[in-house]
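> @MW can you paste both from yesterday?
MW: sure, first one:
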Amino acid sequence: MPSSDRIDATDARLLLALIEEPRATTVALAEQTGLSRNTVQTRLARLEERLDSFERRVSPALLGYPLTAFVTTTVRQRLLDEVAAALDGIPEVLQVQGISGQSDLLVRVVATDADDLYRIAGQILAIPGVERTSTALVMRELVDYRVAPLLLRRAEGG
């Protein structure tokens, strides 16, 4: 396996096989990809160290949080680390990304209902250093989180 942090074509083929059959055995993956069992085992072990956790696979709706919203947040730059730490302390905050443009942060949150979303938005606005927020409710997810098309491109040598 290359020393680079990038996934090569062989790793991509393995990951695509796992997307297709998540419970596939090492032997089955070896047969499907044309690799030796030892190669598959070694590469899977290395991939497990580098890949995200299984958290992305748990739907917040199954936990009682059917609403998703994005809260764009403008912060005082010198307090950015403190704001990020405070956001990390709110369980309903799933993800925070620093962005360019008029706002500084894109905060993905989940809520049980509209009243709960109002409470969470208020918590975010009350964080010292947060100057302004704007909330957009996700009405429908049109394309789910995915990386399979990128893996396919990599597996094909792209």
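MW: second:
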Amino acid sequence: MKKIRYLLFGYQVAQGKVVENPSEKKLVVELYQRYLQGWSIKQLALYAEQSGIPYRENSDSWNKNMITRILEDERYWNGKQYQPIISKELAEKVLQLKKSKATPYSNIRFAQKKMICPVCGKRLNRNSQKNPVIFWDCKGCQNRFGPISDNELQQAITEKLRAICRNPQMTEPERSTNNSLFIQEARLTNEINQLLDQREVDTDRLLPLILECAAEKYKTCGIKESDHLTIRIKALFQEHSNDEGLDRELFEQTVKQVIPQPDGSIRFQLLNGKIV
């Protein structure tokens, strides 16, 4: 069982007093210095693990969270609880470097969870390594979409929503599929009735037809549910027909997925399944 570390790494208790731990102190200083030299947090974690100095008792492993805590803990230099082992100048340089490397806040997080790959349908990951140039990567089929900045994506989403608000008829699904399903159901019903009208009913033929007809009726019930959903989201868009900006609540209530296109445009899959 791992033991909880109560003392800050780099210190120990000797003769009833908290003092520096020489080997741990040396490692802390090295972590700060190497970070400034360009080492990544992952590389520092591996280096600390290879040093043979445990972060806590009964565990030789290190991870990125441990390194991050050490690099951000002001107790190493403020002198309030512990004797400083890091100079304030070194600490400020490290904090400034960490801040410059931090991933900037994305103003399209509201849409991020709905971004999907148009090729395989898997969720897309926002790649900001070359910020402000943003790409969207698919781990499923390895396709990449972009570049498109967050502002450009938000503007595209806004324009798409406004276009649907101005023309709510766009929310209506194609009717040809519905008609074909009803025709199939009618055909099967006809065949069943013809078999039942015969003097000797062929049950071997009848049972599969009944099951197939039931399946078709289930599909048409699903279409009716979709129609109810279409009426609801169509009404929502009509209520926002005069919107000029982005209404995120409307977006949440009506849009299931955002699908970027190779030409830089986007498409929506609405909650009723319609793609616009």
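> thanks! The beta strands are 11-14, 17-20, 124-130, 133-138, 144-145, 255-260, 266-270.
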